[in-house]
Amino acid sequence: MSTLLVIDDDRLHCDLLQVALARQGYQVTTATSGQAGVASFRQLRPVVTLIDLRMPEMDGLAVLKEIRTHDPCAGVIILGGGATEEQENQARELRVTDFLRKGLSLDVLIGAVHRVAQQSRRQASSMQSRSVEEAHQVPDEQILVVDDDVMARDLLVRFLSLRGYRVRSAKDGREALRLISESTPDLLILDLVMPEMNGVDVLRTLAQQDYAGRTIILSGHQNDALLAEAWALGPQEVLDKPIDLERALMAIQLVMVCREC
Length: 261
Hints:
Elements: E1 3-7, H1 11-22, E2 27-31, H2 34-44, E3 48-52, H3 60-70, E4 75-79, H4 85-93, E5 98-100, H5 106-134, E6 142-146, H6 150-161, E7 166-170, H7 173-182, E8 187-191, H8 199-208, E9 214-219, H9 224-232, E10 237-240, H10 245-257
Parallel strand pairs: 1-2, 1-3, 3-4, 4-5, 6-7, 6-8, 8-9, 9-10
Helix pairs in contact: 2-3, 3-6, 7-8
């Protein structure tokens, strides 16, 4: 029986979802606060977690961020009644599996749960089948992630660390240059748009210092002229934001394999 976790500060809503989803054959656990929800997730590792966006003290985005530090691929549905576009974008950056408006019919919600549960099972099966192959191929490369967006930065650091990379992070260009001077990374993942010192400025400085590592640029397409300047400085790849973690991993692996080319 698949385990579901419902995190919502509205006890009545928790009870309603517990009854409705139990009738579909799921084993449903509920939590009425973000902190309790994160603790239950760590213990249960549910196939799907449903999170209310608006909760006191620890809202749905904060809960999702904590979940992603423990499992970057867990199936998560956010119920976001009254969500702003910014909140939806933040959820996408944290790789929410689905984002539903609160108040939709139970049939729509149950259909979404079935879909996410099936997706999670496929991912778990795929990861298990790859684990033996990857056991003898643990990467040892060092990566430096530079991004002023703390949620995007932390998500990428956790995701890559769980895959065996040695990952450091910097919140801006100046800190990145300091860390590079201490130890040159094999790969620099560099946000293009940052205050004070943007990604192009960092690349120009590194070019003057004969930086020998590889570079992947993160771009949200805010400035096409800036992106063109970055390309002229020779990065190996540009990835769109919000970050698609699986695509990012493929790009990183390809860059690492080809670094001697």
